Amino acid sequence: MSTYQYYEFQALDRPLTEKEQDYIRTLSSRVKLNRTQAIFVYSYSDFPGNAEQVLEKYFDIMLYTANWGSRQLMFRLPKSLINLADLEPYQVPEGIEISTTEQWVLINININDEDLNGWWIEGEGWLPRMLSLRDDLLQGDYRVLYLGWLKAAQLCYDFDPDTCIEPPIPANLNKLSKPLQAFVEFIELDPDLIEAAANLSPQAETKSDSIKELQKIIHQLSEEERNDFLARLLQGELNLNLTLSQRLQSFSKKPTLQTLSNSPGRSLSELLTLAVQLNTLRKQKEKQAAKQEKIKKIQELAPRESEIWEQVFHEIGTKHVKAYDRAIVHLLNLQDIAEYQGKLPEFKARVRQIQEDYKNLRGVMSRLREFKLWQD
């Protein structure tokens, strides 16, 4: 089987210069490149450079996927806007790594799941759905890190589920944004495990609500500080909106997405057990809902029972393949009606009669057996 590897880099804070683009082209003649994006796809060979170094020097976010179970998302964040101590609890050996350079904080979420080995996932289209996760991190929203931890911790051989304690729980885990939903889908994270974790997640304002609230308190900045921000804006300072947002949040007392649960932390084993319980409960609810829906359908069809029997014989009588399929659908509905009304013996007797009357119609007979309607 051929291999598949997909690398995509995106520059968000500033576009690449012509010189930088020239260097990226030296990495591969087949690269898809523009001023903000570079894509490399390999079937038999491998990426010639060091992906982390390429990210650090030229880009802000990178996605990688391979058909042997690798799913990777990397971020480059300005060191001046990040409190490194807040990120460190989310690290997982060989799963989530936080490193620094003179200017940058690098976050590497690297999921290697053997259960996904051989499962082909096209890389194109994923990263655009998740680009805003970088801004989330810069604004103190660590949900992507917590969700990454939930996946990576299960795959880490160094972690004992009974003693491995979850990191700080971010706010609003129970209402994930579309980019976070895309991330969950990308790394194949169990929704029941997310629900288990979200039980202790605090509630806070959404990002849009938070921005509106911060706009209301701009007046609390001194005139000197407001003028300083305006001057820096004219000079084109990168990420100035985030710097201003962080400054205004220091005045606000309302809970934000930076809010963390004050829970002492649950073990990975506790979370996994709770996820199993939630999965069982969800399936029970789904089964009950399906049962109620089936009963509703039966009650709607029951007054037309005689008419439906007539349709069965009409469809069989046409001796057309598609008509046989429609006849089977009718018979399955009639079986449900009979079971609900306690009249299965009568139903089975009529099916036996069909078998006798139309025994030469092999299409009908084979369908009766296929859908377990055949009566011995």
Structure description:
The protein is α+β, with helices and mostly antiparallel strands. 50% of the residues lie in helices and 11% in strands. The chain has 16 helices and seven strands. It has helices spanning 18-27, 51-58, 84-87, 126-130, 133-138, 143-155, 178-187, 191-198, 207-215, 223-234, 240-249, 268-301, 305-318, 321-341, 344-357, 362-370; strands at 5-10, 32-33, 37-42, 61-66, 70-78, 96-100, 104-112. Strand 6 and strand 7 form a beta hairpin. The chain is elongated. The relative contact order is 0.08. The mean pLDDT is 90.
Question: What topology does this entry show?
Answer:
Layout: E1 5-10, H1 18-27, E2 32-33, E3 37-42, H2 51-58, E4 61-66, E5 70-78, H3 84-87, E6 96-100, E7 104-112, H4 126-130, H5 133-138, H6 143-155, H7 178-187, H8 191-198, H9 207-215, H10 223-234, H11 240-249, H12 268-301, H13 305-318, H14 321-341, H15 344-357, H16 362-370
Antiparallel strand pairs: 1-3, 1-4, 2-3, 4-5, 5-7, 6-7
Helix pairs in contact: 6-7, 8-12, 12-14, 13-14, 14-15, 14-16
